Amino acid sequence: MTVTDETTVVGSVGGTDDGGIRGGLVPESVIDELVAKVRAEGVELVGEGSLLAELTKKLLERGLDEELTDHVGYERGDPAGRGSGNSRNGTSPKRVLSELGPIDLDVPRDRNGSFEPKLVAKGETRLGKLSENIVAFYAGGMSTRDIKKTLKRIYGVDVSPDLVSRVTDGIVEELKEWQTRPLESA
User: Fold this and answer.
1) Given CB 3.0 to 4.6 Å as the disulfide criterion, which of 44, 74, 76, 84 pairs with 50?
2) pLDDT tens series, the chain, 186 aa
3) What are the domain boundaries of the chain?
């Protein structure tokens, strides 16, 4: 889906004359600038490689960097970090699946390896409701291959049947417990 009508994106948000969006964090001028860029370059609004995917990537990376700043106790480039006992140590690539498609992140790390990000936790490979939707499809009786096809069609995400199985296996025990629980008397 490409943006063709500015009112679809901006007009319905309720902008104010002071350049901000009522109750929001993003100034309307920034939205106008992004919409103009989308129009000029023919960029997709949603999906893999889209404006929203890029914004999500940049916001997540910025948030992770802020978490690391809090963890090591100094700002990037601050001389206070020299000889502090723990310092920034570049980034590691990480791909997470989201409803916008796969997002490749550069996750910052520290020298001591003690940084435990909360925004995108270590080992986390899916953002948002992707796992919940896999479980819902499974609970509705869909096969792993049908779930794989549905995720590709809806989100543009190509997942393996093994991933679907791992997600559903994680809840099978809970489902069995719930199904065999004693019923409350009325």
Assistant:
1) 44
2) 334 333 333 333 334 444 444 446 778 888 888 888 888 988 888 777 788 888 889 988 998 999 999 999 888 888 888 888 888 999 999 998 887 778 899 999 999 999 999 888 898 888 877 777 887 888 788 888 888 888 888 777 777 777 777 777 766 666 666 667 787 776
3) 1-45, 47-127, 130-179
Instruction: Name the token pair of 117.
Output: 């990000």
**Cut 0.70: pTM above it:** no
Amino acid type, 60: L
How would you label 82-111 residue by residue, b for 16+ Cβ within 10 Å and e otherwise? eeeebebeeeeebebbbbbbbbebebbbee
